[in-house]
Amino acid sequence: MTSFQKCVGFGRIFPLVILRNHNVASRRCIHGSSVLYKKRKTREERKLPKAIVYSPKSKWKQGEPVDVWKRMTVAEVANTLGKDVGHVLEVMSFIDNTEQYRKDRDVIDNFKV
């Protein structure tokens, strides 16, 4: 014979099961957690396309394309950029493997620079 009463656990009310077998009564309170009540995604919800994520805009202005050719001098690079030769030499001081370019008439033979 089984009877039910109410038991409170984790903010929810669950039945208290009383089992009576051979004149011995045992009480069991059935508990559950809110994790078990989590709504699962259906197949259709899982197949929905993800929201479009746009990349943030760059803080730096995009410059215009510049013509570059092999064996340019530092002065020619400055002229095509529309900058001062000192500015180009300062920028090149921050780039690796540019120690040999210190004057405006030095030829840039490393195309990766």
Low-pLDDT windows of residues: none
Instruction: Count every helix, treating DSSP H or I runs of 4 or more residues as helices.
Output: 3
Query: What's the average pLDDT?
Result: 75
Helix content: 10-25%
- The shape, in one word, is rod-shaped
Strand order of the largest sheet: 1-2-3
Chart the SSEs and their pairings.
Layout: E1 2-9, E2 12-21, E3 24-29, H1 43-47, E4 72-73, H2 74-81, H3 85-93, E5 107-108
Helix pairs in contact: 2-3
Give an account of the 3D structure.
Among the domains are: 34 residues, no CATH class; 37 residues, no CATH class. The chain is 19% helix and 25% strand. The chain contains three helices and five strands; from the N terminus they run βββαβααβ. The strands form two sheets. It has a three-stranded antiparallel β-sheet, with no helix packed on it. Strands 4-5 form a two-stranded antiparallel ribbon.
